[in-house]
User: What shape does this take?
Amino acid sequence: MTRFIAWRILQLPLILAVVYLITFALVWLAPGSPYGNNDRALSEAAKNDLKVRFHAESWEKFLTYYPWQIVAHGDFGPSLSYEGWSVNDVLRSSLPVSISLGLLSILIALVFGCAAGVTAALHRGGILDFLSLAAALIGISLPPFVVAGMLIVIFSDGLHWLPSGGWGEFRHMILPGVALALMPMAYIARLTRVSMLDTLGHDFVRTARAKGLPKRTVVWKHAFRTAFLPVFTYLGPATAYAMTGSFVVETVFNIPGLGQHFVNGVKNRDQTLILGTVLVYAAFLLVLNLFVDIGYALIDPRIEINARPE
Amino acid sequence: MKGELQSGRIRFGGGILLLLLGTCIVTLPWTLGSSSNFYYDRQHTDSPLLAPRMDTVWMWFGTSKLGQSLMGQCLLGGVISLTIGLAAAAISVVLGVSVGILAGYRGGWLDSLLMRIVDVLYALPYILLVILFKIALESPLGKILRSSAAANLVVLFLSIGLVSWLTMARVIRGQVLSLRTLPFIEAARAAGVPQHRIFLRHLLPNLIGPITVYATLTVPQAILQESLLSFLGIGIQKPLPTWGSLASDGLGLALAPVASCWWLLVFPCTLLGVTLLALNFVGDGLRDAFDPKAEASHI
Assistant: This one.
C-alpha cells in the first residue's frame, strides 16, 4: 500500500510535466497571438518588446524560463492578456469559487443520484424504474446551457426565488450548483441502479432478509454499502468534471470562476494563463483520482493494490 | 421481463433515431438547394423572427433573426450534428479498439506506454483538450483544404473524436486482458496462428458487445460537446447550423422576458434532446443486454 502510494505520487510530477509540454505545444502552434489582438494593432517593434518582456521570443526562451519559475517559486508568471494581473492572482481569486461550486454540485448529484438509482433498482422494470431513469437521462440529453437558462427563467424570472447571477452568498450558488449537478447526477443514478441490481442478487442480501431484518435496513445498510463502490470510483472524475466542466455554467450565471478565465485565455491566446489553468486542472484530477484509488482500497479489503500499476 | 424491457428500449430508441435521421437526409436537396425556401442560408429579409405559422411549410418552425427558415436550419443541423457524433464514434472505435487490443494483448512496456498516454490525456479535462486541439489544428488544415468552412468541419470531427477514444481503449484493454488467458486464445497461439489473425478472428468477435455499447454512448456525448463548443463561440462556423449552435444562438432571444422568441430554443432543443435520449436509450439497452452479470432478483 505504501509502495503503491509512493509510486503514484512519484508519477504525479512526471505526468504534469508531460501535460505541460503537450499543452504548450498546442498553444504555441495555435494561430493568433496574445499581443494587441482586438482594437489596438501594435507595431512590430512594440510586439517584440512585449515578447522580450514576457520571455516569449521563441519556444526555447519560454520553456527555459516559465517551467523553472513554476517549479522553484510556484509562480506561473504574468498573464499576457489581463494587464497588470499575474496568473497566480487570477488563480487565487477564481479557484475558491470553482471549488465551492463544484463541491456543492457533487453533493447534490450524490444525494439525488443515489436516491434515484436505488429507487429504480428496487422497482426494476416498473414505472418508477422507467421514470427515474428517464429523469436521469434528461440530465444528459440537454446541453447544460439550456438547462441553466430554463432554471433562470423558472426560478429567477418567474418565481423570483433565487438570483439569476452574481456571486458572494449561498443563494447565488444554488441554481448554478443544480445546473452543474445534472450530468454527474445522471451517471450516478445509472451506476447506482446497475450496481444495486447486481448486489441485490447476492446471497448475503437474501440471508439478511431471511433472518428478519427490515427491508430498509437491508437495502441501505447491507446492499447499498456494497453497491456504492462503483459510484465511489466515479466520484474522482465527477468532482473533476464539476470543477472543470463549469465553463458554460459560469458563463450563463456570470460567475467569476476558473472556467471563464480559461475560456478567455483561449480566446486571447494567453499562453501563461492557459498553461496555468491547465496545470491546476490536471493536478486536481490526478490527486482526486489518487484519493479515489486509495479510498477504494480502504473501503473494500478484497481489492489488492500492486506496487506497480497493473 | 428483463429482455422485453431491453429490446423494447432498443427498438423504441432506434426507431426514433432512424425516423429523425431519415427525415433530415431525405430533405437534404431542399436544405442545401439555394433556390428553395428551406435553404439554410436563404435570408428572407422581410420576415425575420416570425413565430411559427401553419399555412406555409417553411415557416412551421418560425424564422431566425436573419429570416432563415428555422425548419430548414434544423433539418440540415440534424445531419451535421449526427455526422459529428458518428465521426467521433468511428474515430473512437478505430483508435480505442486498436490501442486497447495492442496494450492488453502485448502487455509489457507497450502496455505501460499506451496506458500512460491514456492517463495523461485523461488528466486533461476533455473539453479543454477539444478546445486546444481545435485552435491548434484549424489553420494548418485550412491551408491544406483551401477552405476555412471545410477545415472547421473536419477539425470539429477530429478534435471531438480524438478525445473520445480513451474510455473505449481502457474498456477494451480490460476485456482483452481477461480474454487473453482463456484456453481458446492459448490454443490458437499454440497452433501457430499469426498475431493479426488472432486479433481479427479470435479477439475482435468477442469484443463486439462492449464496442457497440461504448460507440453508441460516444455519439450523444460528441453531439453535446459540439453544442458546448458552439456556446463558447468556438464551434461550427456560421452560417452552417448544428442543433447545438442553433440552441445556443436562440438562447438569448428565447429567454428574453418580453417578446420571447421561444421557437428559436424549443425546436432545436427538442430535436437535440429527443435524439440524445434515444441514443442513450439504445446504448443503455445494449449494455444491459450484453452484460451477463445483470441478472438479479427482486428483494
Chain A touches chain B through 65 residues (CB under 8 Å). Residues 305-310 of chain A have pLDDT under 50 and may be disordered. The CA atoms of residues 145 and 252 of chain A lie 7 Å apart. The domain at 87-299 of chain A is CATH 1.10.3720.10 (MetI-like fold).
